[in-house]
Amino acid sequence: MPEEIELNPHEDTERVHENAHGHHDGGWLRWVPLSTALLAAVAAVAALQSGAFVNEALLVQSKGVQFQSQASDQWAFYQAKSIKSHGSRETADLLPKGSPLIEKYKSEATRYDKETTEIKEAATKLEERRDEQGKEAGHLMHRHHQFAYAVTCLQVAIALSAITALSKKKPMWFGSLALGILGIALMVQGLRG
Q1: What is the Cβ-side half-sphere exposure of residue 57, based on CA atoms within 13 angstroms?
Q2: pTM of the predicted model, to two decimals?
Q3: According to the model, what pLDDT value does residue 145 have?
Q4: Contact, 160 vs 176, CB < 8 A?
Q5: What is the average per-residue pLDDT within 77-89?
């Protein structure tokens, strides 16, 4: 006697329905959690890199501020020496002709002029270093933004994957994958600098 086949109309109808809509265990839906997990892992790495670049940019910018402060100090020193030079020269001009102090004040004015030249060079070099730090910080911030955009795309892709899992709409999953690929591309671009 052949084995008896047990029929359960409710289970059979459900199985037919799942097979017709691609919802069975071997279908595309099993890839949704895997793709979501991969997107989340890549998003975590991108977020970490984004934070690292912004921190580095802030440190570099801070060095630039220090150079600006030092340059400002040098310019103040330059002005003080310049005022002393003018004062010594004017004093020498106001003294009566033949006064032994004329040469002393002219000598001081010449010394102050030489010192102002050296101070001006030092201040200019500090400003150049400030500018270099500013450019480097700008480059680092650009890289930070690349990773921030990547994180945003990846987070939206993860959200679309979650919606896909609930709605079982395959086009939604393709949109998630497309955004995930865009996020990865932005991340690679950020890595290249």
Answers
A1: 16
A2: 0.72
A3: 96
A4: yes
A5: 95
Please state whether 8 falls in left (phi above 0), alpha (psi between -120 and 50) or beta. beta
Full DSSP string of the chain? -PPPPP--HHHHHHHHHHHHHT-STTSGGGHHHHHHHHHHHHHHHHHHHHHHHHHHHHHHHHHHHHHHHHHHHHHHHHHHHHHHHHHHHHHHHHSPTT-THHHHHHHHHHHHHHHHHHHHHHHHHHHHHHHHHHHHHHHHHHHHHHHHHHHHHHHHHHHHHHHHHHH--HHHHHHHHHHHHHHHHHHHHHHH-
Compute the distance between CA of residue 42 and CA of residue 144 in angstroms, rounded to an integer: 15
Identity of the residue numbered 159: A
